[in-house]
Amino acid sequence: MTSDTWHSLSVNADGDRFAITFDGKVLFTVTDRTFTGAGKIALWTKADSVTHFDQLAITPRS
User: Which residues lie closer than 8 Å to 23 by C-beta, 6 or more apart?
Assistant: First the structure.
């Protein structure tokens, strides 16, 4: 990963299945049944990082 460069991070959630992509490449997929109801999201970065978020979008699936 390079510094001072914008990257694209995507989390695609479909029920209890999640697919995570970084710069268009699938990193991993996982199934998680920990939280089964509707909820919230959060963004977290390491304390020593300088991180900017742009174009955060949450799109419900129909």
Answer: 7, 8
- The count of C-alpha atoms lying within 13 angstroms of the C-alpha of 38, restricted to the half-sphere facing its C-beta, is 1
- Cβ(19)–Cβ(12) below 8 Å: yes
pLDDT on residue 23: 93
Indicate if the pLDDT at residue 33 is higher than 90: yes
Closest by CA to 9, choosing from 48, 45, 40, is: 45
Cα angle for residues 35, 22, 10 (degrees, 5° grid): 40
> What is the spatial distance between Cα 13 and Cα 30, in angstroms, rounded to a whole number?
10
The pTM for the full model equals 0.69
The first and second tokens of residue 47, run together, are 């304390």
Domain boundaries, the chain: 1-33
